Amino acid sequence: MDIIKETYEKIKNMEIRGAGRIGRAAAKALKEFALKISNLSEEEFKNKMKEAGNILISARPTAVSLPNAVKYVLKGLDEENPKERVLERADEFINSSLKAIENIGKFGANRIKDGDTVLTHCNSEAAISVIKTAYDEGKDIKVFCTETRPRNQGYITAKTLYDYGIDVTLIVDSAVRYFIKDIDIVVVGADAITANGCLVNKIGTSQIALIANESRVPFLTAAETYKFHPKTIVGELIEIEEREPEEVVTFEDKYKGIKIRNPAFDVTPAKYIDAIITEIGLIPPQGAWYIIEKYFGWLEK
Ligand code: RUB
Questions:
Q1: Which of 68, 149, 193, 195 is the most exposed place for a label (fewest CB within 10 A)?
Q2: What's the structural domain count of the chain?
Q3: 134 within ligand 1 shell (Cβ under 6 A)
Q4: In ligand 1, which atom is closest to the CA atom of 222?
Q5: CA 151 – ligand 1 centroid, Å
Q6: Residue 169's domain is classified under what CATH number?
Q7: CA–CA dist 32, 37 (Å, integer)
């Protein structure tokens, strides 16, 4: 179980973070774990794999890419030659995830025009793929990155895009409304998309969507199909992770009575989302149900 526990820890302490990376790390851990198992009956192998999957899923509660990746890989346990199928399905998940990010880049870049200034929040591989692809297409673009308190993932995005040669401006999260007049389009990632087209993403996303809506700036989320949450179709709510207060601030003892709340994600209603960029193309948020129906038969049957 070493590889499983190690991956669990890395996801929990955010050494591995971002929904896509978390999903791929879980698939990789299951593959490496399966490879190490020998001398077990088929039944014992299946039980061990299921136990490993449950440990991984418990690392962080919000990004649905984690349970979706685990379920995708472990579906191989119901097939003939379960071990081989689990190994194959882990590779399938990882490869299709990487391909999806590339395709999202192409579809999303179509929405970015020459001369546009793009605003992004937090650090999303899928959103970055859209921005880099637009830049690769020769479009003269500028990007505003929010800091993304409390863990400042926006710094990673700013450095990544700057290293790529893009004109980057970093702003504090509360400056979005001040700068919205300079923004042509907002592109963010997704930790989960619900059946009714709502977006669950880094805390602060919903405020940005509201500000964009007020100023009639298009708000797009880049979400691979494995970010869609199958259980929301039957009314299940997505748990919003609340993290340690120390991530926000550490007060001296005298002020220990001050309560600190630190939700890591929030929910953006579908009405503030202009489009969801998936690897099969752009859909309106109302199309989320269709994606879940089409792609998650393997989960809920
Ligand atoms: C990261 C975050 C990202 C999504 C999408 O939160 O909210 O926007 O996970 O990222 P955290 P990607 O840093 O708490 O994991 O497009 O890379 O999957």
A1: 149
A2: 2
A3: no
A4: 16
A5: 12
A6: 3.40.50.10470
A7: 9
- Specify whether the CB–CB gap between 157 and 90 falls below 8 A: no
Active site residue 184: no
Q: Which residue range(s) make up the domain with 50?
A: 2-101
| pLDDT (tens digit per residue) in 241-282 | 999 999 999 999 999 999 999 999 999 999 999 999 999 999
> Which residues of the chain are under the pLDDT cut of 50?
298-299, 301
Which atom of ligand 1 has the smallest separation from the CA of 264?
14
Minimal-distance CA residue to ligand 1 atom 11? 18
Claim to verify: residue 129 and residue 245 sit in the same structural domain: yes
Last residue of a domain, one of 101, 134, 167: 101
Q: Are residues 16 and 126 in the same domain?
A: no
Residue-wise over 171-198: b if at least 16 C-beta within 10 A, else e?
bebeebeeebeebbbbbbbbbbbbbebb
Instruction: Determine which one of 78, 91, 182, 191 is catalytic.
Output: 191
From 86, 101, 116, give the residue that closes a domain: 101
**What was the pLDDT predicted at 297?**
66
For 32-49, the pLDDT digits (tens) are 999 999 989 999 999 999
191 is catalytic: yes
- Ligand 1 centre distance from Cα of residue 257 (Å): 31
Look up residue 153 and give its two tokens: 């993932």
Give the separation between CA 290 and CA 79, rounded to whole angstroms.
26
CATH code, domain with 37: 1.20.120.420
Q: Is the CB of 191 under 6 A from ligand 1?
A: yes
SS3 (DSSP) at 274: coil
- From 13, 96, 120, 124, the mutation candidate for ligand 1 (largest count of ligand atoms within 8 A of CB) is 124
